[in-house]
Design goal:
Layout (H helix, E strand, L loop, with lengths): L2 H8 L3 H4 L2 H7 L4 E6 L1 H6 L1 H8 L6 E4 L5 H4 L9 H13 L2 E8 L6 H4 L5 H18 L6 E6 L12 H6 L4 H12 L4 E6 L7 H15 L6 E4 L2 E3 L6 H12 L4 E10 L7 H19 L4 E6 L9 H4 L17 H13 L15 E6 L8 E6 L16 E2 L4 E3 L8 E2 L6 E5 L2 E4 L1
Parallel strand pairs: 1-2, 1-9, 2-3, 3-4, 4-5, 5-6, 6-8, 7-8, 8-9, 12-14
Antiparallel strand pairs: 10-11, 13-16, 15-16
Helix pairs in contact: 3-16, 9-11, 13-14, 14-16
The chain binds ligand G3I.
Length: 428
Amino acid sequence: MHSKTLLASLLAPAAVSAVLNDLAVRAGLKYFGAALGEGAFQSDSTYASLLRDTAEFGQVVPENGMKWESTERTQGVFTYGSGDVSAKQAQQSGQVLRCHALVWHSQLPNWVSGGTWTVETLTAVMESHISNVMGHYKGQCYAWDVVNEAVGDDGNWRSTVFLDTFNGTGYLPVAFNLARAADPSAKLYYNDYNLEYNGDKTDRAVELVKLVQAAGAPIDGVGFQGHLLVAGTPSRSNLAAALQRFTALGVEVAFTELDIRHTSLPAPASAYATQGDDYANVVGACLDTPNCVGVTVWGVTDKYSWIPGTFEGQGDALLYDANFTRKAAWTSVSSVLAASATLPPTSTSSSAQACGSSTVYVTATATAQPVTVTVTATVTLSQTATTDPAAIQTLYGQCGGRGYTGPSQCGPYTAACKVQNDWYHQCM
Ligand code: G3I
């Protein structure tokens, strides 16, 4: 085998052809995941196969099946058929399961929201709901959204049956304590939208984490839902700054319900490119934040999304269009992940007879790492490369793209730096 061919095979161009969860894991995240729409999953085989593809989605979360109205529509009567769809899917494919959501004002049956309660009776209702539902899924959920959307759009505490009955925020530590007792293995999250803007609502969520901690109750994570707008998404650094306000408190973070919608449809082609940039900023912010564990998109395809039903005339917010074709945003996400991904270890058998070596720079990394590749006796590779990582990128390595600061020249076995997309130029 010619030495160039061997090096090329050792440095396989996985970064460009690989898919989202594979890339995310190589980039250091636990998962790249998606919400599972129970109706679509059961009726649309194209949808179901894509959601089952663990190279693309390493995590699932039920879009509706584990909510209170699905699991305890009638007091004391628990139904798990819809939630079990996601749990079974995760188990069958070995996907991470996020579980959503326990204490939330929405999709809450009338018997709870319209009931007349005291602190004691509502605590008993919460205890019964949390212990039954978390008990049913015990040991299966990587994380539970224990409290969802407790802060209003104006940054004040949201008036709900929980806040109002407790006459304040006392229900928050109660919920987290009940959750820990019900399933000690699950990470316990607070989950909300518009935390991304680092405004009053974000301040209040920081206060929430602090007050739960001050009460001695457990809280392990904060979910940034990420329901965002094309051309209205904060920059990568501003998003990272918002995430890091929470990781500074000792909790992990994740984007839990990401979609970035066009506010007017049909949108021009340029808006789809902007949408790609916005997605790259969100995923990039997670990559830039130690203790940001993953990114979950709130749906697989524009064919099925909650958005048009809530925001008429808006949408096209996901990574696949209604025909299951990857959009520009998919390419942006894969590229920003690839730029942070490292290839699996490349080493030969220890029994092989080494007769030459070359220092190469692992491809698809923003900060190229020197790796020594040992070449077997069947190959004569006489030179030892001493390329300068600041100046030279090797075959299949990244050589340009927005935000990239590594080597931009290609060599030694490379023809040119080829533009794959705005975010990823590659030595080919
Ligand atoms: O299940 C009924 C069905 O029986 C009935 O025939 C049909 C008629 O409209 O409605 C079905 O219920 C719908 C349900 O989704 C399941 O499809 C509800 O009308 C509909 O309002 C509900 O919307 C969900 C919404 O939460 C409710 O708040 C969306 O699918 C879901 O994507 C959305 O998800 C939320 C997250 O949980 C929390 N963060 C915000 C996010 C987006 O709103």
